[in-house]
Automatic annotation (TrEMBL):
Organism: Streptomyces nymphaeiformis
Protein keywords: Membrane, Transmembrane, Transmembrane helix
Protein name: Uncharacterized protein
Chain segments annotated as transmembrane: 20-39
Length: 225
């Protein structure tokens, strides 16, 4: 091998070493950037989503009304912190021809669940806990059936504007989801004539209501036409 070939070989080796060094440095920088990003994401507060169900339950209890709602409370992001839901509030405000003095005052009475009984082919309600804070994290989403009571109040025919408000820990603002409820005279009469703790379903996803053109997104009694 002459001096020219030796010089060319040494040049190629030097260039290869230089490229290898830059590639290793770039890979290290990218890995560091990902580590910083992941660390930053983990340090952030969890971003919580609240989604209302397609079905609400209500009926008479005592001298008042029970209202049951099962939201999905979840986060799509992994963080070191967890979110704590401290309290739940339900509001129903009559609109239109219903007197505003008829507005109910709901309080969180308990949390429950519905369990299917194969023997009787029925879905039975079961108490699960007192009204108490619950934890939400990426690996622990929540679907509690929140049970609210309003004393000395019952539904009148008409439309109601509703909101579910979940209070959070850490001095963070509450999570609020709004909805509307359309109670027909037929539905109101059903509730007034029902026995204690009889439950009635209201839905917001039935096609015949969506095509009606009148407040299509409101929850309505399944038996309304």
């Amino acid at each position: 091998m002459n001096d020219t070939d030796a010089g060319a070989t040494e040049f190629r080796r030097t260039r290869f070493d230089s490229v290898h060094t830059w590639a290793a440095t770039l890979a290290a920088v990218v890995a560091l950037a990902f580590s910083i990003y992941n660390f930053t994401e983990l340090q952030q507060k969890p971003r919580i989503d609240v989604t209302l169900p397609h079905l609400l339950r209500t009926g008479p209890v005592g001298n008042g009304t029970v209202f049951q709602i099962q939201p999905t409370v979840s986060t799509r992001f992994k963080t070191q912190d967890v979110e704590v839901i401290l309290d739940a509030h339900l509001e129903l405000t009559p609109v239109g021809a219903i007197p505003s003095s008829k507005k109910p005052i709901f309080y969180w009475h308990e949390t429950g669940t519905y369990v299917y009984d194969f023997n009787s082919d029925q879905i039975n309600y079961s108490w699960t806990s007192d009204p108490a804070p619950f934890i939400v994290s990426q690996d622990k989403p929540q679907q509690p059936t929140l049970v609210f009571w309003a004393d000395d109040w019952t539904f009148q025919p008409g439309q109601y504007e509703g909101s579910l408000q979940l209070s959070r820990s850490g001095n963070r603002g509450p999570l609020t989801e709004k909805f509307c409820l359309d109670v027909s005279k037929k539905a109101a009469d059903e509730i007034h004539g029902a026995g204690q703790r009889q439950i009635f379903f209201f839905r917001d996803d039935l096609p015949r209501f969506h095509s009606s053109g009148k407040s299509p997104d409101c929850y309505r009694r399944e038996t309304d036409y």
